[in-house]
Specification:
Strands 2-1-3-5-4 form a 5-stranded mixed beta sheet, covered by helices on one side. The chain has helices at residues 2-20, 60-78, 99-166, 170-229, 253-268, 296-306, and strands at 45-52, 83-85, 92-95, 238-240, 244-247. It is an alpha/beta fold. The chain is built from 6 helices and 5 strands. Helix 1 runs parallel beside helix 4 and helix 2 crosses helix 5. The protein binds zinc ion (ZN).
Length: 309
């Protein structure tokens, strides 16, 4: 009975786990729309590096390297020299550290806590499986031994009653005495087995409460995550304001680079396009982050703005 109850508990925990893990948040990018520059793309758009907040842990040189990579994506695919780094250019790209990156870092930390807890949970679940398997085997063996013992005891009692009724011989008496000794030994063995099985049950139950603790902690972390970073909350990753580009949040360099490619598009005068995989889609979500490519929509928007053939 006990073992079924434990299985029941563990199944409930697993399904709760599955539901919780579905939570996700998305990061949005918003931008002031392009206001217009004279003769777009007639000559390379000049830019410089402005503020690089040290809290991003990215040097100005490495920041510039990412900008150059972003520049290349526009230039390689269009076959035009669209941008030019000029250290004293008016137009600056800035890395501005504020509550957005703070929130992003905190969210990362929580996410990594959740990963760790998931690993602990899996470990406990495996231990539980092993222990429950051993418990089940020992319990089955114990049950079978109890049945055998009870039969032996019944037979013995019947033999004793017969012996008393028929005034049996001394030999029969000796046999019965021997059988009694065997039965007593069997009883002691069963008691030992019972203690062992109970010990295993105790260990298994301890694992279940350990797991409950991990699940509780996980759930607490998930609700913190949800309250702080979930729902429809949006924040700007980057902003083009006509005079410069400000970048506010990224998780990895590829993410930063993709945001720069997008904002550079705005600097050229390209607005948002409809296709979610496009660089110039208003959200950073479905684009190929590791290897960003201009989509046909991006390219036609660029051609329209720059009046390329
Ligand atoms: Zn945009």
């Amino acid at each position: 009975m006990k073992k079924f109850f434990q299985y029941f508990i563990i199944i409930i925990l697993f399904s709760a786990w599955g539901i919780i893990l579905q939570n996700k948040t998305s990061v949005r990018e918003t931008v002031s729309e392009f206001t217009g520059i004279g003769l777009p793309c007639a000559k390379p758009f000049q830019y410089a590096v402005g503020i690089v907040d040290p809290r991003f842990d990215l040097s100005a040189n490495n920041f510039l390297a990412e900008i150059r990579e972003a520049e290349k994506i526009w230039e390689t695919q269009s076959g035009k020299n669209l941008f030019e780094y000029k250290p004293d250019a008016q137009f600056k790209l800035n890395l501005i550290f504020d509550e957005r990156q703070v929130a992003s870092n905190a969210a990362d930390k929580l996410a990594s806590n959740l990963d760790q807890l998931e690993i602990s949970h899996q470990k406990i679940a495996n231990q539980y499986e092993d222990l429950a398997g051993i418990y089940e085997k020992k319990m089955a063996k114990y049950d079978a031994n109890v049945v055998a013992y009870e039969k032996k005891l019944r037979d013995y009692n019947k033999a004793v009653a017969d012996w008393n009724k028929n005034s049996g011989s001394q030999d029969e008496y000796n046999d019965l005495a021997k059988e009694k000794k065997t039965i007593n030994e069997l009883y002691d063995k069963l008691e030992k087995e019972r203690t062992e099985v109970n010990g295993l049950a105790g260990k298994t139950n301890a694992l279940v409460s350990k797991e409950q603790k991990v699940v509780n902690e996980y759930n607490a972390n998930v609700s913190t995550y949800k309250n702080k970073y979930g729902g429809s909350r949006e924040f700007e990753k980057g902003l083009y304001d006509g005079k410069g580009i400000s970048l506010y949040q990224f998780k990895q360099l590829a993410d930063l680079r993709l945001t720069i490619v997008h904002e550079l598009g705005h600097a050229l005068g390209v607005g948002h396009v409809e296709d979610p995989q496009s660089i110039m889609y208003y959200l950073l979500s479905d684009q190929n982050m590791e290897n960003p490519q201009l989509s046909p929509d991006d390219l036609s928007a660029l051609k329209a703005v720059c009046k390329f053939e």
